[in-house]
Amino acid sequence: MLVQLLFQIIFLFLPIISLPISKPNCLSSCGNVSIPFPFGIGSNCYLNDSFAVDCMYDHKPFLRSINLEVLNITIPDLAIRVNHPVLNSCLSNESTLLENTPYLFSDRNRFASVACDNFAILSSNNSSLCGCLSICDESQSFEMGNCFGVKCCQTTIPTKLKSYKTSYNMLKQRQKCKYAFLVDLDLFSTSNISAEDVQISNKSQFY
Length: 207
Ligand SMILES: *[C@@H]1O[C@H](CO)[C@@H](O)[C@H](O)[C@H]1NC(C)=O
Ligand SMILES: *[C@@H]1O[C@H](CO)[C@@H](O)[C@H](O)[C@H]1NC(C)=O
Ligand SMILES: *[C@@H]1O[C@H](CO)[C@@H](O)[C@H](O)[C@H]1NC(C)=O
Ligand SMILES: *[C@@H]1O[C@H](CO)[C@@H](O)[C@H](O)[C@H]1NC(C)=O
Ligand SMILES: *[C@@H]1O[C@H](CO)[C@@H](O)[C@H](O)[C@H]1NC(C)=O
Ligand SMILES: *[C@@H]1O[C@H](CO)[C@@H](O)[C@H](O)[C@H]1NC(C)=O
Ligand SMILES: *[C@@H]1O[C@H](CO)[C@@H](O)[C@H](O)[C@H]1NC(C)=O
Ligand SMILES: *[C@@H]1O[C@H](CO)[C@@H](O)[C@H](O)[C@H]1NC(C)=O
Fold this sequence. Notes:
Helix content: under 10%
Bound molecules: 2-acetamido-2-deoxy-beta-D-glucopyranose
Strand order of the largest sheet: 4-5-6-7-8-1-10
Largest sheet: 7 strands, mixed
Number of domains: 2
Low-confidence stretches: 1-6, 202-207
Distance between the termini: 13 Å
Mean pLDDT: 80
Strand content: 35-45%
């Protein structure tokens, strides 16, 4: 449950005609998630393929064009919240690509990294865009609400981001796998996630 929170990031979709409800004769929700137009479940229910939602057998909605689980759609903000895997330097340093979609990574997200004595960098299109430094002090415990440079660091991100890569510059040779993720700003203050939870989240195939 806690681990799942870690993956929550917000995409914005480009402003287009949208309604606070589903099209007539279309499913209005999947599990606990409302699916308003331009999103839709089933042919003729969504505006175009970018907004097609599949309601899986376990009542979890997936956005077909990017294959990520949808957690919430907020039409007034043109925002959708999705589960996105934590990037683990031992497995992958590359985010989901939004280049051919109407989506952007919202700047309501923060870029965060869980690592020791490391400078984590977010880059896109071969340019470094932001980064943060985390040191480690064995005596200090860490939780998400306390992500200020010890075991965990965070920073704001540029607007209009469509994809990103992470890279890591170790100050000392320490642990092998390092972690980075975008996370909804609100979750920093409301969740209590430990560094260990992030490492467990290695099992990123949560869905
Ligand atoms: C819907 O919400 C209820 C109450 O929060 C929860 O118990 C249930 O598991 C949720 N169902 C799905 C499919 O997420
Ligand atoms: C979705 O977001 C809206 C607006 O932020 C909020 O009121 C609602 O509780 C959220 N629903 C879920 C299932 O998180
Ligand atoms: C769907 O419509 C939106 C808004 O007009 C557009 O940005 C997007 O490229 C379209 N997607 C497809 C697959 O045509
Ligand atoms: C990527 O970088 C190249 C060269 O710096 C630039 O011409 C191009 O417009 C950039 N593309 C995007 C999508 O930012
Ligand atoms: C980044 O640079 C490498 C090597 O110069 C090049 O092969 C690659 O296509 C570039 N990527 C982008 C997104 O511009
Ligand atoms: C991720 O980047 C780090 C250095 O920045 C590198 O050591 C590691 O091998 C990369 N991981 C993958 C899966 O490419
Ligand atoms: C967060 O979790 C840690 C360890 O589980 C605990 O010691 C700490 O009191 C918790 N903090 C809050 C604000 O709940
Ligand atoms: C993460 O997963 C990979 C591949 O499944 C595994 O080799 C690695 O040991 C795991 N790391 C941790 C910290 O569990």
